[in-house]
Design goal:
142 residues
Length: 142
């Protein structure tokens, strides 16, 4: 280990979703954000469940939980990507368009004439991350 790395205090270590303690701490706020996002985007129960890669019954239970169990690393990654997409869209467009964009057919090669929502349901985490990068690139003028 290099000398520079030996002096990093534990409180400055990079946070990630692999730590059970971090997941437990972040789960409630992440799920609250996802519930709001699903509502604003007008997602059906099936769509909201599919984006999180859970069954509809699990999603329905998660919506009702006041103190949710720790989300998995996968689920936190999915929510993080989706919140980033939401934020990027609201920086690009007026609120109405920002919230409708996710369901509109898109001709960009990334989406293969599907809506971004359908492409993310089909492609999972890799597609969610690609959509996030796409929105950030469009926002940055790339």
């Amino acid at each position: 280990m290099s000398v520079a790395l030996q002096h990093i205090a534990p409180e400055t270590e990079r946070q990630d979703f692999s730590s059970l303690a971090d997941r437990a701490r972040l789960s409630a706020v992440a799920l609250k954000a996802y519930r709001r996002l699903a509502d604003v985007w007008g997602l059906t129960g099936q769509q909201a469940a599919a984006l999180l890669d859970v069954s509809i019954s699990t999603w329905e239970r998660m919506k009702q939980e006041a103190k949710p169990k720790s989300l998995s690393q996968d689920q936190l990654t999915r929510i993080s990507a989706l919140v980033g997409i939401y934020k990027g869209l609201h920086l690009l467009f007026a609120d109405d368009m920002a919230d409708r964009w996710i369901k509109l057919e898109n001709k960009a090669p990334l989406f293969a004439r599907m809506s971004p929502l359908d492409s993310m349901i089909k492609g999972g985490i890799p597609q969610m991350l690609d959509v996030r990068r796409y929105v950030d690139a469009v926002r940055g003028g790339l």
